[in-house]
UniProtKB/TrEMBL annotation:
InterPro entries: Hint_dom_N, Hint_dom_sf, Intein_N. This is Hint domain-containing protein. PROSITE patterns: INTEIN_N_TER (PS50817). Residues 60-170 form the Hint domain. SMART domains: HintN. Coiled coil: none annotated. GO terms for biological process: intein-mediated protein splicing.
Length: 695
């Protein structure tokens, strides 16, 4: 008789959370260190930052030198002319929001931190609006796809590969670039001069708030006269949309109504007006405004028609925000570590093939097997590749040595109530099946929810075979959702006392075992996004002795819906040593590479005199057999010398190769030799690397 698992309670889940946190903490610390090695800011602090050696992350962003970049003073400047210290307009690297349709990014003032140029093999991205964007393969654009509502980062070389690959359906994938600004030029015509002078004299720039974010409005006030008519005519001639408000009594002594002309079209049109017409007083006022709370909103979208290879002269740029606007599109600094992880991900996560063996050799069974193969391939393509699921799993296995997949049934999606076609009494088989296929392709949703769970976002309890027994995930929900959808009396009471606002996020625990699913309120402390999630979650179970159950039910799947895909497993049983990322053997090489990159990026000379010298009164003979004293003061570099020693600059070695050649060689060693040794059988493990379930 199977053992029934008891229904989870607030105390039992809290106690399990505490135990799993303790067991996994050493492993997570190692994972976070290696995550930072290959991802965070694309730079390892091999050389410590200080006032004397002001290290900055080195990220190389490569677009054609002729590509226009939007600067902070609202000019479009060629990428090849930008220099370190120039001010540009960037935006948040990552989006935020509770669901994809509400994901958003804000503009962000940024500064160019690196600028150089080179001639390299690159790509030309051809858009259906006729524009061509020239860049390197590692360059990333904000891209949208029909299957994903939110814009996300994609490398150009990946897009090139996917557009030229054959897919199961035979149709190439579709990618579009959201356009956030139209490129403008300085308007030095008579109409531009009239508008600049008029808005400088009688105009103003104000900020407004609405449901879509904060906007800027350029306004011009004038009585009904010839100047007002000329301003309207010039706005029309230069293709600016405008509106007019009439204020009947602008002031107590006014004898005429005031006509207020407003440049319409939102933030992008206001910026185009200021940047093209350039009224100096309004531009000076713009500098005082904080642009960081202005929403980055797309004004149009251009589909990628094709991508081809070509030689490109590129400007290698890095900005403090890691982002900026190039030719009106969202661009990202292309980092070194990102290139390595994506390269390795491409090696690891090769597309699998599917084969179904018919039980007999009759035609019906063979046809059924073929349909199963096609269905499996189609599901994999639609549900796992199109939403970036497969590469995400690959990255986790490469870095952490494990990945987690959650699959839950959503049977209600294929019911008559949800719109699934019901066969008519006289409808033929062919007609009905066509109607079902059309419904699945247009309205129907896939009846499984398949999601990737980041390795550092889940605490699993595993058995001896690394099968998942129970999991705990920390999630956040708004007070409104907790009160209305979950019926939490605690949150309702907090809302009534105005202790929390409806949009404040509170922590909840998602607990799942082989029988139960349970959501529990983990506390009433409002989420603070200024605190790193790792730190916040570590202390969550320490703040209470019991969680508050919100909703609990049986999932009736017969097994845990989360599956762990292991990478390389060791013979050690403790979680800290049991899993090994595929990139772990490349750690030393990555450190060396970053050391070289840091030196090149910051122009730090390894052969320099220290800031200070501490001359000892004794000679080296008098100190024989003893360690040299160390002076620890916050003065910068301090070198201790004996009385009979002279401090000289080390001779710079001659005949060394150029630093960029050295970096290219190091990159070659890391990306091709080390990773392929790890991934393709020259280390422990007999299976091909993409068969990660056999590791």
């Amino acid at each position: 008789m199977p053992l029934n698992i008891p229904k989870p309670t607030g105390k039992s889940v809290r106690d399990m959370h505490s135990r799993l946190e303790k067991e996994w903490a050493p492993r997570f610390r190692l994972d976070e260190e290696f995550r930072d090695l290959v991802h965070q800011r694309n730079k390892i602090e091999v050389l410590e930052e200080s006032d004397e050696l002001n290290m900055e992350p080195m990220e190389i962003h490569c677009v054609d030198v002729e590509t226009p970049i939007l600067t902070r003073d609202l000019r479009w400047v060629k990428a090849g002319t930008l220099r370190t210290g120039d001010q540009v307009i960037g935006f948040n690297e990552e989006s935020s929001g509770v669901s994809p349709q509400f994901y958003s990014r804000n503009l962000e003032a940024a500064e160019i931190t690196h600028a150089s140029d080179a001639i390299v093999d690159g790509y030309v991205v051809v858009l259906d609006n006729g524009e061509e964007l020239r860049c390197t393969g590692e360059h990333q654009f904000l891209v949208t796809q029909p299957s994903k509502k939110a814009a996300h980062w994609r490398r150009v070389d990946e897009l090139f590969k996917e557009l030229n690959e054959r897919t199961v359906s035979g149709m190439p994938p579709k990618f579009s670039l959201p356009k956030y600004f139209n490129v403008w030029e300085d308007e030095d015509s008579r109409d531009g001069g009239l508008l600049a002078g008029s808005f400088d004299a009688d105009g103003t720039l104000i900020t407004t708030s609405n449901a879509h974010g904060n906007d800027l409005l350029a306004k011009f006030g004038q009585y009904d006269n010839e100047l007002l008519a000329a301003v309207k005519k010039s706005l029309d001639y230069l293709d600016f949309d405008w509106g007019e408000n009439i204020v009947e009594h602008p002031s107590p002594g006014a004898k005429e109504p005031m006509h207020v002309v407003v440049v319409r079209g939102g933030l992008d049109e206001t910026m185009r007006f200021l940047g093209a017409v350039r009224p100096e007083r309004l531009l000076a006022r713009l500098k005082k405004f904080d642009i960081d709370n202005r929403k980055l909103k797309a004004i149009s979208s251009a589909e990628i028609a094709s991508i081809r290879r070509d030689r490109v002269r590129v400007a290698r740029l890095a900005s403090s925000s890691k982002t900026y606007i190039s030719a009106g599109y969202g661009s990202h600094n292309s980092g070194r570590a990102g290139g390595i992880i994506e390269h390795a991900g491409g090696l690891l996560m090769a597309r699998p093939t599917f084969h179904a063996e018919p039980p007999t050799q009759n035609t019906l069974d063979e046809r059924t097997a073929e349909q199963v193969e096609r269905a499996a391939s189609n599901v994999f393509e639609r549900e796992l590749v199109a939403n970036n699921f497969w590469p995400a799993v690959g990255r986790d296995i490469l870095i952490y040595g494990r990945a987690f997949v959650k699959s839950m049934l959503a049977m209600s999606l294929w019911t008559a109530e949800a719109g699934y076609p019901v066969r008519d009494s006289k409808e033929s088989d062919k007609a009905y099946l066509k109607r079902v296929r059309d419904w699945k392709d247009t309205e129907g949703k896939f009846p499984f929810v398949i999601t990737h769970i980041p390795a550092l976002a889940i605490l699993p309890a595993l058995d001896n075979g690394d099968n998942v027994l129970a999991t705990i995930e920390i999630k956040y929900a708004t007070a409104k959702v907790l009160a209305e959808d979950f019926g939490s009396e605690t949150v309702k009471e907090l809302l009534s006392r105005r202790v929390v606002k409806w949009y404040d996020e509170l922590p909840i625990i998602e607990y799942i075992d082989t029988e139960w699913v349970s959501y529990l309120l983990a506390g009433t402390e409002i989420r603070d996004r200024s605190i790193e999630e790792d730190i916040a979650s570590d202390t969550l179970h320490k703040r209470t002795k019991s969680y508050t159950p919100l909703r609990t039910w049986k999932h009736n799947l017969g097994k845990h819906p989360v599956v762990m895909i292991p990478g390389i497993r060791t013979e050690l049983s403790d979680y800290k040593s049991h899993f090994k990322g595929f990139l772990a053997d490349a750690k030393d090489a990555l450190h060396t590479y970053d050391f070289l990159l840091s030196r090149l990026a910051t122009m730090v000379n390894a052969y320099y005199l220290p800031s200070y010298e501490w001359k000892l009164g004794a000679t080296s003979a008098q100190f024989a057999g003893r360690d040299r004293p160390v002076l620890r003061v916050n003065l910068g570099g301090v070198t201790v010398t004996y009385a009979d020693e002279n401090l000289d600059v080390l001779a710079i070695p001659q005949g060394l190769p150029d630093a960029t050649m050295l970096l290219a060689q190091a990159d070659d060693i890391i990306q091709r030799h080390t990773l392929e040794d790890v991934l393709f059988g020259r280390v422990q493990g007999a299976a091909p690397a993409y068969q990660v379930n056999l590791r």
